[in-house]
């Protein structure tokens, strides 16, 4: 199986040592070990055994994860080395050449690319508007039929932050039930809703053939731990995923699982702090875009830790971002590498230093000559 290039990760890798400020990352402000562990816990961590751990993941961590859902038990959770490993493992163990997959697009690259590489027939569920990214659930339902093996979607949506309603989600579930299809729900940004935006139920709580994937990277700011999970009541999915992993990582890094377990104990406070920062940064971005309305137009997110901004210069989004990186050492994500309109930029809202990044972006906008516009 030959996997295609991964444009988003390639963009980050190429810029890795060339920026001082990121306005691009989709995760929240990274935490440190001292943010997670008290002094006493740090001393205890020094004695943490570094032997092999549980194949499914630390029991305490799996229970903490299960507690986030309304219908799951500890045994319904399988811990992975990040959500990316969970995605890849699920796709490899549930899809075969020729399977029909209905998938939301745009979406995180590996969700679609892995299914394509397996040889699946991909049917895209596109937004009604490629700039504002409203998704019509009735059109998704129309795409499904008796041949549908899997339905894949992501809400809150990356990169637009758009949502659907609970009734719309339940309509998708009813459609999957009608055709006996699996559901794979990317819920990486769930629990980062804007004020007034309802929290969607987890798909795995609504249907026994639904799988929810998430982790500690985006919402808790712990991307370096590489801890993610599959959550589902479907024993066959979990069994096949575990058996596949016997040939890859076997199990997940136990010290990182321990740190994730400690962080999960404080997730209510961490999430509250992160949501507050996102709201504050979004307000700054709204004011900024109004001041520079000739150059930028914000399409406000309903949830998540990022926003889609339409840039109105004469440059393609990649050139716009490349110039900003070269001149101001500020990193942005061009729409091109996300598989979205080339007029769009993805701006991350979850980190500190947001105002400093906007100040440099403002300097860059002022530097663009009238001939370039």
UniProtKB/TrEMBL annotation:
<dbReference type="InterPro" id="IPR004838">
    <property type="entry name" value="NHTrfase_class1_PyrdxlP-BS"/>
</dbReference>
<dbReference type="InterPro" id="IPR015424">
    <property type="entry name" value="PyrdxlP-dep_Trfase"/>
</dbReference>
<keyword id="KW-0808">Transferase</keyword>
<feature type="domain" description="Aminotransferase class I/classII large">
    <location>
        <begin position="51"/>
        <end position="349"/>
    </location>
</feature>
<dbReference type="Pfam" id="PF00155">
    <property type="entry name" value="Aminotran_1_2"/>
</dbReference>
<comment type="similarity">
    <text>Belongs to the class-I pyridoxal-phosphate-dependent aminotransferase family.</text>
</comment>
<keyword id="KW-0032">Aminotransferase</keyword>
<dbReference type="InterPro" id="IPR004839">
    <property type="entry name" value="Aminotransferase_I/II_large"/>
</dbReference>
<dbReference type="InterPro" id="IPR015421">
    <property type="entry name" value="PyrdxlP-dep_Trfase_major"/>
</dbReference>
<dbReference type="GO" id="GO:0008483">
    <property type="term" value="F:transaminase activity"/>
</dbReference>
<dbReference type="GO" id="GO:0030170">
    <property type="term" value="F:pyridoxal phosphate binding"/>
</dbReference>
<dbReference type="InterPro" id="IPR015422">
    <property type="entry name" value="PyrdxlP-dep_Trfase_small"/>
</dbReference>
<protein>
    <recommendedName>
        <fullName>Aminotransferase</fullName>
        <ecNumber>2.6.1.-</ecNumber>
    </recommendedName>
</protein>
<dbReference type="GO" id="GO:0016829">
    <property type="term" value="F:lyase activity"/>
</dbReference>
<keyword id="KW-0456">Lyase</keyword>
């Amino acid at each position: 199986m030959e996997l295609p290039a991964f444009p988003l990760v390639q963009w980050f890798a190429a810029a890795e040592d060339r920026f001082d400020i990121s306005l691009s990352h989709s995760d929240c402000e990274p935490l440190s070990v001292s943010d997670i562990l008290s002094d006493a816990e740090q001393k205890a961590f020094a004695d943490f055994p570094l032997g092999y751990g549980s194949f499914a993941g630390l029991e305490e961590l799996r229970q903490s994860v299960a507690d986030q859902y309304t219908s799951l038990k500890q045994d319904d959770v399988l811990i992975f080395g990040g959500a990316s490993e969970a995605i890849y493992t699920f796709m490899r163990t549930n899809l075969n050449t020729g399977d029909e997959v209905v998938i939301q697009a745009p979406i995180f690259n590996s969700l679609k690319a892995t299914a394509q590489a397996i040889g699946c027939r991909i049917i895209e569920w596109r937004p009604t508007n490629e700039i504002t990214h409203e998704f019509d659930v009735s059109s998704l339902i129309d795409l499904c039929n008796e041949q549908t093996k899997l339905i894949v979607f992501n809400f809150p949506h990356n990169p637009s932050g758009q949502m659907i309603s609970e009734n719309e989600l339940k309509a998708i579930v009813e459609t999957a039930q009608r055709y006996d299809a699996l559901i794979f729900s990317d819920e990486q940004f769930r629990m980062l809703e804007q004020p007034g935006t309802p929290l969607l139920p987890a798909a795995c709580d609504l249907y026994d053939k639904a799988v929810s994937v998430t982790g500690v990277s985006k919402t808790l700011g712990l991307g370096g731990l590489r801890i993610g999970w599959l959550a589902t009541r479907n024993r066959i999915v979990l069994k096949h995923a575990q058996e596949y992993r016997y040939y890859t990582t076997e199990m997940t890094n136990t010290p990182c699982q321990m740190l994730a377990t400690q962080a999960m104990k404080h997730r209510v406070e961490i999430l509250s702090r992160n949501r507050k920062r996102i709201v504050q940064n979004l307000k700054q971005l709204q004011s900024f875009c109004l001041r520079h309305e000739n150059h930028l137009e914000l399409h406000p997110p309903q949830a998540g830790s990022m926003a889609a901004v339409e840039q109105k210069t004469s440059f393609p989004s990649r050139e716009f971002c490349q110039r900003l990186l070269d001149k101001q050492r500020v990193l942005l994500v061009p729409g091109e590498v996300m598989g979205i309109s080339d007029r769009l930029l993805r701006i991350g809202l979850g980190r500190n230093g947001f105002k400093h990044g906007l100040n440099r972006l403002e300097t860059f906008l002022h530097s663009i000559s009238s001939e370039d516009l």
